[in-house]
Every structure is written in C-alpha cells, then in structure tokens.
Amino acid sequence: xxxxxxxxxxxxxxxxxxxxxxxxxxxxxxxxxxxxxxxxxxxxxxxxxxxxxxxxxxxxxxxxxxxxxxxxxxxxxxxxxxxxxxxxxxxxxxxxxxxxxxxxxxxxxxxxxxxxxxxxxxxxxxxxxxxxxxxxxxxxxxxxxxxxxxxxxxxxxxxxxxxxxxxxxxxxxxxxxxxxxxxxxxxxxxxxxxxxxxxxxxxxxxxxxxxxxxxxxxxxxxxxxxxxxxxxxxxxxxxxxxxxxxxxxxxxxxxxxxxxxxxxxxxxxxxxxxxxxxxxxxxxxxxxxxxxxxxxxxxxxxxxxxxxxxxxxxxxxxxxxxxxxxxxxxxxxxxxxxxxxxxxxxxxxxxxxxxxxxxxxxxxxxxxxxxxxxxxxxxxxxxxxxxxxxxxxxxxxxxxxxxxxxxxxxxxxxxxxxxxxxxxxxxxxxxxxxxxxxxxxxxxxxxxxxxxxxxxxxxxxxxxxxxxxxxxxxxxxxxxxxxxxxxxxxxxxxxxxxxxxxxxxxxxxxxxxxxxxxxxxxxxxxxxxxxxxxxxxxxxxxxxxxxxxxxxxxxxxxxxxxxxxxxxxxxxxxxxxxxxxxxxxxxxxxxxxxxxx
Length: 597
Hints:
597 residues, alpha/beta, 6-stranded parallel β-sheet
C-alpha cells in the first residue's frame, strides 16, 4: 500500500474509472516523467510487463482505446487523452506538438513569400558576404563551407536550424548572419536567448568578440546585443504557466536567435514559437547529439532527425551558395537532391567541420567515437591512454582526483572577485548522477575536504568564504536564473555576499540570506553543464552499469564541455556500455510533419 501511495502514476491512473484505460493512463504518465511526449502503442510489451500487478489484471485484450469516451482523436477534441498515429498522448502535450508543427509550417511559408526580395538583398551585398566568408588558407580545403550554407539559409528563411558539435562555428556563423542583416537594415531589432542565463551570456559574449571585420555602426549594434533567458524573453508571469508574450502579443523583434536549443522541452518550445510573429526570423542553434531537455521532449533532436539526411539542397540552391563561396572550399555539387519535399528541406544545416578539435585525435576523436558508438576507437583510447587531451582512469584514483580539484586554488587565491569568477570556470568536475559514491553531493563534500585539508577554505557556516554556488531555480526578483554561478566573498565592509556576474559584465553582490535555491558547484551534473565550457573537465561516472541515464549522449555532452583536457573516471566496461546505450524519446514529430506539409 505504501508503494502505491507513493506512486504518482498509480494515483493519476486511478483517477479514471475505466478499468481498461487505467494501464494506459499509468504508462502515459510514467513515460512523460521519463521525457517521452507520448506512449507508442506498437511497442508495449516491455512497458506492459513493468506495470503494477493491479493494472496487469485489467482486461486489456478486448479493450479498444478508439472507443474509449475519454480518448479524443485530433487537436479540437477536449478529452484528457488523444490517440493519433498509434500513439497515446495527454491532451496538453498533443496540443504542444501540434502547435509546434503548425507554427513551423507557417514560418516556412512566410519566408517563402519573402524569398525573391531576400535573394535580391543577397546579391546587393555580395561583396560583403564574400569578404565575411573568405577562406583563410593558402591551399585548397577538402570540405565545403557549411557556415556559408547556414548563413544563406538563415538570411533567406523565417525558420532556420543550425546544428553542429563544439567548435564548428555556430556562433561565428550567427555573427556573420547578423552582419549581413544589419547591412540590409541597420535598425533591425534582434533578441538573443538561451534556456539558461549562463548560455545566453556566453552567446552574447562570443558574438561581441567575433573576429570579423565590421563597420562602426555594426560594431555598435553588436555591442548593444543583450542576452536573455527564455523565461525573461517571453515575460515570466509569477504564479502562472503562461507568459506575457504569446500568439496574441508577439515579441517585438525582427530576429530571434536561441542557443542551446537541445535543452528546450516541448512545453517551452511551443510557447516560444507561439510568441514569435510569422514575419520574424527565428534561428535555432544547438548540437543535435547533446542531451535533450530534463523535462519532456527532445524537440531539437527530433527536428534535426526528421529528414533522412542533412545538408541536401536543390540544384538552384547549391548554385546560389556556390556563387558566394571562396574557390578554396570544396563546392556543394555532391549535395544535390531535387526530390525532397520535407517542410524543413533547405531550412536545416549541419556544420560538420570542428575548428577547435581535430577529428583524428584528442577530444574531437573520442567524442565522435562515443556518439557513434565506435567501440574499437574507445577501447584504443582506454588501453593506450597516451593522448595529451584525453585521460581515462578506470581505478578511480584518489591521487588523480585530488590533483585535478587542487586546481581550484587558483580562483580561491585570486583577490579580484571578477577575475576569480573567470578562474573558477576554468575547470569543473561533472557527475552523471546526484546520489551515491560518485554522485554530485558526495563529490562536492570530497572536494571540500581536499581543499580544507590544504587550508585553502574553512568550512565555517553554510556560506563560507570562497564557496562556489549555482542557482537551481529562477529568482526573477533578484535577477538570478537557473544555472547562474557565484562565489562567496566579503564586501568592502567585511559582510559576506554571493557575487555573480551580470549579463553586462558587472558584479552583483547578494546577501546569502536571500538565496534559498542554491547548491555547491565544485562539481555539477552533466545536465547542468550544458551551455558551459571549461578548459579542463573531470567526468565522473558511477561505478555501476545499473543506471538508466548513462547514455552516449550524456557522456558525449560531458566530454565536449572541455576545451583542452578531459579526464574520465570510469571502468572500461561502463564506458563501452554507456556508448552503446542511446537516448530514445517517443514523439510523433517526424511522422506528423509529413502529414502537415
């Protein structure tokens, strides 16, 4: 009975009086908690076996969902469940998915209406475009200029997805897109957003420091760009699931650019698209191979994978891109496909060349091996352990752990708070889980002990001097957002405060008593690390294979947070099993897209 009372899915299912519906209600609720948008009815065997015994006894053999009164069939129905394409949804999530699909179709059609005018604009600024995308190489390059292809796509369309791994130049591409758009309209209104404040600030900082030649007016426009969390962009309404900006009150921008889009759940995705007018350009950036959102849905990945193959274009489109491409790049002649009719055809570009990592060594090679489940390459890395960028430690060496975390002394001994914050973010321990020996909480306590034993910190009180903290819930009153990181230091009067860097690069000191939703952040979860980069990373996996969240996407995300060095503490068996396990979240995006086009 205790187990039943604590099982929220059981409580939800028991609310419905139809015995035949209850097992399905239980599974839909549980799937939602696991990140799925719906329940796939054509692969229920394993799920059905995991049902509580009370539901297994129900007569499901003769039960027909299509005849159930509480199950609707389309977006106009108001029943609590919707049955569509052999998938069962909670009504609200079916409506989210429907709204996303319909809005994307609207964006693509609106962009098509502007196509001729925008083509003329591209031709008018041909010299600028060629200068922006000039190859900085003395020899011919063996790859296409995918950044140029993405930029042309973003300028022409009202809906564009640009995906790519670390160092492939997503932000650089956007900087060049904005340079072209500002040349067309110097008064263009642009919004930058990301799921977390840290990710938004990093995008804005990268755009402002982009190494491209700009005139003074355009430089001013870049410096004026202000990053925002998605909640702040849409206008958070306290105590409500709704936002100030919606379909009836769209955002007042000409261009909206959203980074780290893989972190956006289905509900936020729907609300974002609804708040953007059809004449506004929406550009989504992200890495399709990274972890999906913590909440339900993997919309960015679903959209990227809704076509069988990326980076295929019509012959006319290829000719257009090649007309701007520096002759040192390989032309796009091999990427022609005149038969594709998918709604996202020529709206989605994958950047395929990393300028940060080499593909044949180091972080670039191991991250690619993990996401592609290349077991032989992974084994070679682990057995040789000679790569200067990547080090595996299957013994969970305490010596290696202490050596790594001793690097935190650099920020602790830095007297300037702003500089200390930057030095804090040079390294980070990343945990896959929260509980257990290799979990977040135990790891942070271990690091505190190492630093305390070295007399670098004194653990007096919850908010001790030098303690690094991360905000775990948005606090709109204080202007702090989930993922913001600060350190505890005294102010000029000797009062301890928690210091954060604002989006404008200034320091904001908050009294500790005003902060309730914070955690120590010497170590953080891999999920929380999305949108961040560190020079050095220690990825700590739990010493057990019995953890469902250990997937290739999780390990890939952890590894690719590192810019120069990554240490991985995990057994060979665990790493190989993790790389073999892939995230799979149920949704109807791909199939329904084809029906809406």
